[in-house]
Sequence to fold (331 residues):
Amino acid sequence: MTNRERFTAVLNGEKPDRLPMVEWAAWWNLTTDRWEQEGAPKIDGPDTLQNYFGLDPLRQIWISPRGAGCPSPAYHGAGLLEDEAGYEAIRPFLFRDEDLESAVRRAESWREGHERGDYAAWLTLEGFFWFPRTLFGIENHLYAFYDYPELMRRVNRELTDFHLKCLEKLLPVFQPEYMTFAEDMSYNHGPMLSKELFDEFMLPYYRQVVPVLRENGVKVLIDTDGNVEPLIPWFQEAGIQGVLPLERQAGVDVNRIRENYPEWLMIGGYDKTIMHLGEGAMRREFERLLPAMRSGRYVPSVDHQTPPDVSADQYRIYVRLLAEYAKKAAE
Fold:
């Protein structure tokens, strides 16, 4: 099977020759800096480290609504605006056709290898919690549901229009195996907003975009960190089919999710915090995941980016074990 065929089979609940062996998220720069010092090559393309370590290539296109020249926040978590006037000031930098066209050109350049099956591909669109937060800032965004509800609705209406335009232009030339809405709307104790706010400010917009994706054969997932399990029924109402990264530190259990949601798609789930502890700890973690791996519709991967306390040699052990269990799960 090709990399693309293998990935598609798992997402469809079919049994491949082995499970995909992917790193769904790019590595931390501190991690890759360490690995370069330990002999790994400097990244000079989308598949450099995948090829070096023996992973299956997985390429991502992220289409951001913020265009070139958009102001940057003063610090992490700070906002770009406070009210309607602030939104009007940065609106010329948002939802620009030229940024969309650049993403489409990149997709076209990848099409031949993708159709040949050299790699699987995924699309990321910024979600209806994530994008307003990048505008208001982390704290003010949570107040904005109450202080600026009409502005919040306007932002997400215009974001919806942008996403639909993206799909109209992208899907005829490039069909990813799956996509994610970047959201990060859960933390270690669960969701960051109530079901009522989700239903009012997010659900109507998902219901406009998700059907277009599914009608074109693209599996629809949510990217949200932390304890996502309480949110799964919310996402199912929106037509969403799965989630990543399934962070173990937040108490997420892929086996429990599989028991409660047999058709739910999952990517991630491997506890990154034990990787520096050696082969025994890494093997025990694969044994924990093996029932879910055998159940289908699950691509095991690190539950977020590999931390810099993992050496290149330790990561090689992880990849060797991943190959072993990817075959075992498909037997």
